[in-house]
Specification:
The protein has about 110 residues and is α+β, with helices and mostly antiparallel strands. It has a single domain, classed as Hypothetical protein apc22750. Chain B (Translation Initiation Factor IF3). About 35% of the residues lie in helices and about 45% in strands. It contains two helices and four strands. It is elongated. The two termini are about 15 Å apart. The mean pLDDT is about 90.
């Protein structure tokens, strides 16, 4: 399945719009890794524990969005966007959403 953040897909034309699809997750790091991340914040540099958390969350929401689109019979998802929002201390929700479509090669 093609997943893009554009309104069109080069070499294809959209023949049917199937509606909004989404995937979401709420993630928090293990307290031990959260403490390590806090120490990294003091000395500066990349906080690898949070980078890893966001990467895992992004992969999960894309998969969930793709599954949602698959249930509608979509070939692709266009105009994909990501939104992150805090839920509580050290936990955040990540949502991916887009429009499920059927496509044909030009």
């Amino acid at each position: 399945m093609l997943i893009v953040n554009t309104e069109t897909i080069a070499g294809y034309r959209i023949v049917e719009s199937l509606g909004l699809v989404k995937g979401n997750t709420i993630r928090a790091k293990h307290i031990g890794k959260d403490l390590i991340a806090g120490l990294r914040q003091i000395v500066g540099g990349e906080i690898k524990e949070y980078t890893e958390l966001q990467t895992e969350a992004r992969n999960e929401v894309i998969l969930r969005m793709e599954n949602d689109a698959g249930r509608l019979g979509a070939d692709a998802v266009v105009t994909v966007r990501f939104v992150t929002s805090p839920v509580m201390a050290a936990a955040a929700e990540l949502v991916a959403y887009g429009t499920a479509v059927k496509i044909e090669k030009n």
